[in-house]
């Protein structure tokens, strides 16, 4: 691994640190609904006005054109400043926009990219379906060509922020007669179109981020197809080149901060023997081990980013980091619940945040691929194990 910061990169860090200190929102980000949407759009507009929007986007498309190391630095400083990240604009900034940059028409780029960068719109992703989550190519939502339109019928599920979104990156089946990867089409769907019904799903943490989306003869202009009809799988895969692992840096620093908060609470709360919890050898050992695991996770991420600087195509390390982060974050918050107990949980403040985080982290080993699927990827692409049933 070779990850050293140049003088220019250190200057970039100071610039980012100073700007975040002066411009990060002072108020707490709302956790749901229209207030959250308004907060995220306002924060994106503030970054746009300050020259920080579209950090990884090419300059010719309005972005910052930041290098991989500069992206890493930005996320580190965001985490240290406790500044919000992209929130409900994640799909627009990390998926929709980059896909249009790579595969979209000039008209699509001219219309959508400025709106995304200026913080004017929220996008959602219409990929997962009941029975077609991890095996995305098995999706069944149909789209038939009728004149100048696609007519869409079907259902999507786990569509984050669909109830707040203006546009959707939608993957539909346009040719059921060919192998499943070849009959898909990537299309821009107007979420205000007649025939769309959005039904929010309440999570364990009490939020309504996830939604079901139903399509009943929804008409989408063929001009909204990105790439070509029946070429949707290749279009969807093109966004992978824009995700190089830097986003996990902020999550890891947040996890490290949660451990430090837990250690602070353990210094104050009494244990069963009358001493503070941190004087208990088992508690102290558990917290030390978790702190070491977070440090190891960060080293793994740095190694991934170092490799991504040298190779054009992202390697399988992303699955390793995602798997380790998801399971470690659950261990951290499960330990927090065990250590704090009812007495600590009634204190509010940091302990209340840990409770909410505990409920939220269950999705880390489900969303974007379960732990089992990620282990399969690691087994096949890292260890070279054969696929079960493969000839």
Low-pLDDT runs: none
Largest sheet: 4 strands, antiparallel
Structural class: alpha+beta
Helix content: 40-55%
Q: Can you count the helices?
A: 11
Binned strand content = 5-15%
Q: What string gives the helices and strands in order?
A: HHHHHEEEEEEEHHHHHH
The coarse overall form would be globular
Write out the strand line-up for the largest beta sheet, numbering strands in chain order.
2-3-7-6
Average pLDDT, rounded to a whole number, is 87
Amino- and carboxy-terminal Cα gap: 36 Å
Which oligomerization state do the chains in this entry correspond to? single chain
Indicate the radius of gyration in whole angstroms.
Answer: 22 Å
By DSSP, the count of extended strands is: 7
Cofactor: FAD
Protein name: Acyl-CoA dehydrogenase
Domain Acyl-CoA dehydrogenase/oxidase C-terminal: 230-383
Family: Belongs to the acyl-CoA dehydrogenase family.
Secondary structure layout:
Elements: H1 7-23, H2 33-50, H3 68-81, H4 90-103, H5 106-117, E1 123-126, E2 142-146, E3 149-156, E4 167-173, E5 184-190, E6 196-201, E7 210-221, H6 232-237, H7 247-268, H8 281-310, H9 317-345, H10 350-360, H11 371-381
Parallel strand pairs: 1-4
Antiparallel strand pairs: 2-3, 3-7, 4-5, 6-7
Helix pairs in contact: 1-3, 3-7, 4-5, 7-8, 7-9, 8-9, 9-10, 9-11
